[in-house]
Design a protein that fits this description.
37% of the residues lie in helices and 14% in strands. It is built from 7 helices and 5 strands; from the N terminus they run βαβαβαβαβααα.
Length: 246
Amino acid sequence: MQDTPASPSATFRTAIITGGNTGLGYVCASNLLHDASGGSPWNVVIACRDPERAQDAVKRLRQEVNAAGSSAKVEAMRLDLASFKSVRDFTEEIGRRLDTGELAPVHALVCNAGIQRGATKTFTVDGFERTFGVNHLGHFLLVNLLVPRLALPARIAVVASGTHDPAQKTGMPVPAWNDPTALAKGVNLSRKSGQGLGKVKGNHLWTRQAKANGPGAGTTRRSKSRRWRWCKPADAALIKSPPNWA
């Protein structure tokens, strides 16, 4: 497999996977690279904050692809969801590469990356509680910025978890609901409630609202007004005006 990114003229499709270097993200990347349906092979972009770990995953995935004799491609790009600047830099680079033909059209975005800080309160560089900032707000901004650059047909997948679902009987507490501002501050953060809402219930609600109020269930359409305007205004306000908790 070549080390250079796919070009649109080669009829490739690009899929971006956050946190694709390990766990479910890695398995998702592997499955896409072996996917022969849809006609065109995939060019998978592993979006990861740690370049070394990302390159290690790319190396292993390329070995899989070569062994299978596939024409699919995989590469890594740096993305730190704990930094709005990093998210914006990433999407600007994606846009630049699309405009110059270095990157095949983006048909899929998998919002997979996530952390769980438990009762440890830490903050992103923008001043948000880290679990909520990375799992929820980082992906919220990423999706909003990438939606206008998606090619049809397109799909956005938001990964959540059933860990805090009482029906799963995992022993984890039910996530406590709180308003977005309180979650961003880490108010009442405890080992009992944690920040489960940050990736579990929060992303479930986010995706359900998008499905219910958006222009399609996980799809986008080309129009002058194509935006993720069905996302929560409170989340947009938090991103637009990062807090000063001092």
